[in-house]
C-alpha cells in the first residue's frame, strides 16, 4: 500500500466554482472594509467649521476692521496657566500704559483642535479690574484657548492660542 505525499499529489484543478469563491471573497472583503471605513468616518465627523462660507466671506471685512482696532489699542493680555492642585488659567489685561483694564467681561472657551463637539466653555470671575480666573475645572489635553474680552456688547479683544493641560 502506498500513500502519496504532498510532493506527489496532483495539483487541484481550477474550476469555475473555485474562481467564483475567490471572486466573491475578494469583493466581500473590499465591501466590508469600505462599509467599516464609511461608518467610522460618518460617526467621527464633527461637522463643518463654517455654516455658510458666503456669510463668512461677507463678514471678513468686519473681522479685519476689528483686528486693526484691537492692534491700535496696544493692549497687553496675558494668560497664565497654573498646574497642580490649583490648576487653572489667570488672564491679565492691561492697556498701553500698563494700567489694568476695568469694565471687561471674559468669554473664554477651550476649543478642541479636531472635534468641535468637545469644546468647553469656561466660566471666569474678575478677581480685580483686568484680572480674571476660571471657576470651572479644566480638562486635561491639548486645546485652543480662545479668549474674548467684551465691553457691554462689543468684543474688544480676541485671541487664540494652543495650550496643554
Name of the CATH class of the largest domain: Mainly Beta
Beginning-to-end CA distance, first to last residue = 77 Å
Fraction in beta strands: 25-35%
* Number of extended strands: 8
Q: So what's the oligomer here?
A: single chain
Order of helices and strands: HHHEEEEEEEE
Helical proportion, percent range: 25-40%
Low-confidence stretches: none
- Mean pLDDT over all positions: 86
Structural domain tally = 2
Work out the helix count: 3
Looking at the structure, the CATH topology of the largest domain is Immunoglobulin-like
CATH superfamily of the largest domain: Macroglobulin (MG2) domain
Structural class: alpha+beta
The major pleated sheet works out as:
4 strands, antiparallel
Instruction: Using the 3D structure, state the CATH architecture of the largest domain.
Output: Sandwich
Strand order across the largest sheet: 1-2-6-5
Shape: elongated
Description:
The chain is of the alpha+beta class. Helices cover 30% and strands 33% of the residues. It contains three helices and eight strands, in the order αααββββββββ. A hairpin with a 2-residue loop joins strand 5 and strand 6. The chain is elongated and about 100 Å long. It starts with 15 loop residues before the first helix and ends with a strand.
Amino acid at each position: 500500500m502506498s500513500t502519496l505525499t504532498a510532493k506527489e499529489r496532483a495539483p487541484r484543478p481550477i474550476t469555475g466554482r473555485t474562481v467564483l469563491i475567490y471572486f466573491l471573497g475578494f469583493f466581500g472583503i473590499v465591501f466590508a472594509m469600505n462599509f467599516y471605513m464609511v461608518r467610522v468616518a460618518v460617526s467621527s465627523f464633527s461637522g463643518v467649521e463654517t455654516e455658510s462660507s458666503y456669510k463668512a466671506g461677507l463678514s471678513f471685512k468686519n473681522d479685519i476692521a476689528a483686528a486693526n482696532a484691537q492692534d491700535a489699542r496696544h493692549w497687553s493680555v496675558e494668560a497664565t496657566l497654573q498646574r497642580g492642585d490649583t490648576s487653572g488659567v489667570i488672564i491679565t489685561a492691561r492697556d498701553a500704559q500698563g494700567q489694568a483694564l476695568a469694565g471687561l467681561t471674559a468669554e473664554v472657551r477651550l476649543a478642541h483642535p479636531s472635534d468641535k463637539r468637545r469644546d468647553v466653555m469656561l466660566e471666569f470671575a474678575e478677581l480685580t479690574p483686568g484680572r480674571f480666573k476660571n471657576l470651572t475645572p479644566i480638562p486635561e489635553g491639548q486645546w485652543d484657548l480662545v479668549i474674548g474680552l467684551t465691553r457691554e456688547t462689543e468684543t474688544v479683544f480676541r485671541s487664540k492660542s494652543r495650550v496643554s493641560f
